[in-house]
Amino acid sequence: MGKWMVSAKKADFNRIAERFHIDPVVARIIRNRDVVGEEEIEKFLHGTMADLYDPTLLLGVGKAAQILSEKTQEKKKIRVIGDYDIDGICATYILTACLEACGAVVDAVIPHRITDGYGLNERLIEEAARDGVETILTCDNGIAALPQIACAKALGMTVIVTDHHEVPYEVQVDGSRTQTLPEADAVVDPKQSGCPYPYKGICGAVVAYKLMQIYLGRMCSAGAVTEEEKTALLRELLAFAGFATVGDVMELTDENRILVKYGLQQIEKSGNAGMRALLAVNDLSDRKLTGYHIGFILGPCLNATGRLDTAARALAMFRTKDQAEAFTIAGELKALNDSRKEMTRQGTQQAIEMIENSTLKEDKVLVVFLPDCHESLAGIIAGRIRERYYKPVFVLTRAEEGVKGSGRSVEAYHMYDKMSECKELFTKYGGHKMAAGLSLPEENVETFRAYLNAHSGLQEEDLTEVVHIDVPMPMSYVTTTLINQFSLLEPFGNGNPKPVFAQRAVKVCRGQILGKNKNVGKYRVSDESGNEYDMMYFGDLDGWHSFLTVHFGEEEVRRLYGGDGSEIVISVIYYPDINVFRGREQLQMIMQDYRA
Question: The pTM is what?
Answer without folding.
Answer: 0.88
